[in-house]
Write a structure and sequence with these properties.
The complex is a heterodimer of chains A (302) and B (182). Chain A is built from five helices and twelve strands. In chain A, strands 1-2-5-4-3-12 form a six-stranded antiparallel beta barrel. In chain A, strand 7 and strand 8 form a beta hairpin. Chain A is globular. Chain B has 182 residues and is an all-alpha fold. Chain B is globular. The chains are: A alpha+beta (302), B mainly alpha (182).
Chain lengths: 302, 182
């Protein structure tokens, strides 16, 4: 170790705190100017801490399951009655569905419809959330090793949760639809009215730029429109509800109680462009230009 | 600005290197517990600022054992893991240290209500400051409702955190005698 005179050492000790405060401020500004700056650090740290967070979040899941079981025992009689009733109803629907599937297949055969793309799912567990008032993200315990990629849709059985924004080897981060930076093209189910679902960190995201606001009704179902190519069309998102400043959407998914989620690969993940470091960005038109070039290599360079 | 204000005062030396790590470790644990997915509706938005409590406690009683660079590392780690803008967490914890060091002499050795009142002022002020900082970063007026809830919850939980940290401190660092001296 280097020997320093007591005065110098005291000087260093005194200036550490102000120096680090200035450094944090500088990092904040630098990170704001270039969003990609800390991306590798983020995914790296997520990968390293994922196993620990995974283990730490397990007892919580177990406790929740135990509580659920107790609740289940209490309501078992009524639950059984309800399920029998529902089962009767669903059996009828099953008949209808089978009939429609057959009919649909025949009609598609007649019209030569191109079938929807194959979909693959990865189930992952939520191991950490953002724990604060300013971002809405969750970390899940699967990453590129499980085949996940940036931009893939994250859903549960109830509807849309968000999309993957950072993917490491063993962990990935999903930006929830309620986050301040989330913008999703949606439409009102059964109509062509388009809108943009804009998160503002509250539990109910806002509905902006509604195509035909006069037709909007409270309780209308909102689904993804598929515009922009990030999400496939018709994923259920939520229901229209009233807000103090314009319409809002009550998500179908209870986003504060995410346990397991499904990451869906519709083969669309190329649509969310990778962030481009500023060195490359200057002199180019922008993100869109690069992805277009990647998709159309046959075009001659301008 | 007198730099002397930002230095830790002389405190009885702790020889066990394991004990010297206790403040840093408890602060890391506090930061990690805050991001565990508790399945309580609406909890995420109002998660109490646990790391802030740990930093307040240790800066008050053992500022020598929770050095600025540890706070910097914990804050940056917190930002990276939660997906917040990198630097906010570090800035929060470091400014907390600066504020507590300056006002330390008003609280140390006082009864618990004084310490709690101190946390209400310092912690509440810091959390409001963080809200203003986020408004500036996002360039929009963020809804202060959750921030207020979060502040109230953090201040309300502080006695529990303080009790636990005090117990840990007495058992592992001070031995039973030194807790309320200085």
């Amino acid at each position: 170790m280097i020997r320093l005179s007591p005065q110098i050492r005291a000087g260093i000790q005194r200036s550490t705190l102000p120096a680090l405060i200035v450094l944090s401020g500088a990092m904040l500004i630098a990170g704001k100017a270039d969003q990609t700056m800390f991306e590798t650090l983020r995914t790296g740290l997520s990968d390293v801490t994922a196993p620990a967070l995974d283990v730490a979040s397990r007892p919580l899941g177990a406790a929740e399951a135990a509580l659920d079981r107790v609740r289940g025992f209490i309501g078992v009689y009524h639950e059984n009655r309800r399920l029998e009733e529902e089962n009767r109803r669903l059996l009828q629907w099953q008949q209808v569905a089978l009939k429609l599937t057959t009919e649909n297949r025949q009609l598609q055969g007649l019209l030569r419809v191109v079938p929807d793309r194959a979909v693959s799912y990865v189930t992952a567990r939520v191991i950490a959330n953002s724990g604060g008032a300013y971002v809405r993200t969750v970390m899940i315990n699967a990453g590129s090793q499980a085949g996940l990629a940036r931009g893939q849709a994250v859903i549960t059985g109830d509807g849309l949760v968000g999309r993957l924004t950072e993917v490491g080897g063993r962990a990935a981060r999903a930006l929830l639809i309620t986050d301040l930076n989330s913008r999703i093209p949606v439409k009102i189910e059964g109509s062509s009215t388009g809108a943009v679902l804009a998160g503002d960190n509250s539990e109910r995201p806002r509905l902006l730029y509604v195509g035909a606001p006069e037709t909007l009704k409270i309780g209308d179902r909102v689904v993804t429109s598929g515009e922009g190519g990030v999400f496939p069309p018709d994923l259920p998102v939520g229901m229209v509800s009233a807000g103090p400043s314009g319409p809002r959407v009550e998500p179908f998914v209870e986003l504060s109680q995410l346990g397991h989620v499904l990451v869906v690969d519709y083969g669309l993940s190329g649509a969310l462009p990778q962030p481009i470091p500023p060195a490359v960005r200057s002199g180019r038109k922008g993100k869109a230009a690069t992805s277009e070039e990647a998709q159309a290599p046959a075009q001659p360079p301008r | 600005m007198a730099l002397r204000e930002f230095t830790a005062p002389e405190l009885p030396r702790v020889n066990s290197s394991a004990a010297r790590l206790v403040p840093t470790l408890t602060t890391i644990i506090a930061a990690l517990v805050a991001i565990l997915p508790l399945q309580i509706p609406g909890y995420v938005a109002i998660t109490p600022a646990l790391a802030l409590m740990a930093v307040y406690h240790w800066t008050l009683y053992r500022p020598d054992l929770l050095p600025p660079y540890a706070l910097f590392a914990i804050g940056i780690g917190e930002d990276l893991l939660t997906g917040s803008p990198v630097g906010v967490g570090a800035l929060t914890l470091l400014v907390t240290r600066a504020v507590v060091l300056r006002s330390r002499r008003h609280f140390v050795g006082r009864t618990f209500p004084a310490v709690w009142a101190g946390f209400t002022l310092v912690g509440g002020g810091i959390m409001l400051g963080v809200w203003a900082l986020h408004c500036l970063i996002e360039f929009s007026l963020l809804n202060p409702r959750n921030v207020v809830f979060r502040m109230v919850l953090t201040i309300a939980i502080f006695p529990v955190a303080s009790f636990l940290l005090g117990r840990i401190q007495r058992a592992l660092i001070d031995g039973p005698r030194l807790m309320h001296r200085r």
